[in-house]
Write the structure tokens for this entry.
Amino acid sequence: MGDPVGFKKYNRKTIPRRKSTKRIEDWKEIYTSWSLKESHEQSSRCMDCGIPFCNNGCPLGNLIPEFNDLVSEGNWEEAIVRLHSTNNFPEFTGRICPAPCEAACTLSINSEPVTIEMIEKTITDTAWENGWIKPEKPKFRTNKNIAIVGSGPAGLAAAQQLNRAGHYVTVFERNEVIGGLLSIGIPEFKLEKKIVNRRIDQMKKEGIKFQVNTDVGIDIKPSDLIKKYDAICLAGGSTVPRDLDIKGREYKGIHFAMDYLSQQNSILRGDKLIDKRINAEGKNVVIIGGGDTGADCLGTSIRQNAKNIIQIEILPRPPIERNEDNPWPNWPMVFKSSSAHEEGGERDYNILTKNFISDSKNNVKKLECVRVEWIKESNKKIMKEIPNSNFAIEAELVLIAMGFTNPQHEGLLNDLKLNYDNRGNVKANKKMQSNIDKIFTCGDMHRGQSLVVHAIASGRKCARNIDVFLEGKSSLPSVQEYIRPI
């Protein structure tokens, strides 16, 4: 440890965010930076516990006490080596991960955890600034060709690992840009696309091929895919949005959150719009769904100069502190705010949307809602409407941010005759292998909608399984992905 009593000497401090009044005027990253002194102090708060619960809490198994110790000593170059040994893209997780590692930090028992996520971000940014991150070409090449379908975080992680194992890797992406959710869905202010693009450039220089605007199953026949490649990794994600099947859903001005977010990212890239612009400017905006995607819609609506914004959730507001049935080191089910919530808008809970009301031109005008309560019956929480609690919310723009149900079955997956689990995801064995011998699956397509950190872990794990399938053994690291409810 750099300082055995650092956790006593220094309080937790995160990287400052730019003032909310200033950052809503642009789409740039919300964070500033730490000084070297602040980085050293924060990393020295790590106690290097005998049992590092943070390591277990991290789905990637990051060697957190080790890189904290290296940062506290000022050994940044070795810190990025240690971080890269478990995480292909720490600049992504250092910005958009909810940090289950911090929830599991021993200091969380009765104090504030180590700022692991911000240390991870700082290590990676420092490494890029100093030119320490370079293409890592394989020392040898096998004669095996692998297709990765989907270029999100799971597909990218699998591709980089398999390429470094010496295989020839081609990544297919049906959209015009590489990166999946990272490039298309996450707002620029949370993850600037230049950060994604520089990692993709590294992968291209390592020998990975990317093929965009290619819908596998349509542009490439499934039978041709199976014939041409020695192994196939399906990493297409969970892309079917959960809808709200109520009266008035067809009215104009009601959109899925991902359509809204992806369009704004497309505008910032300078693309020509194909669909009509979804714009919050001057409108009353209602976001249905209280999660991170809803918060992304909030931050985007604020930057588009919405008149008024409210984010509603059917579930109760979480408690400020852990309940007795939610002890450390489990994920804390507590009330949290994102950077967007600092910037404006309202949040409300225990609200069920009953139907939409339109004007004479079929434009959405209002939501009719009712308050609900959650009552425990037979060890289950049952939702019940509260009598005489009906009310209306004005809205010219409604964004449905209720998550995703499963990957798209129509097309490739059905044509391949793959089996599905009871949630509609691609069914696979412990080796992440589908009912077709050479086809593997990872990420959200395999486990359902989840976090970017889980996707990277899943991609790394799948890569090792494919390598063993092709070669009988693998030098790629094992990944014991930590599974928790999301």
Q: What stands out?
A: The chain has three domains: 6-129, 145-239+405-471, 243-402. Residues 482-486 have pLDDT under 50 and may be disordered. The CA atoms of residues 368 and 392 lie 5 Å apart. DSSP finds 19 helices and 16 strands in the chain.
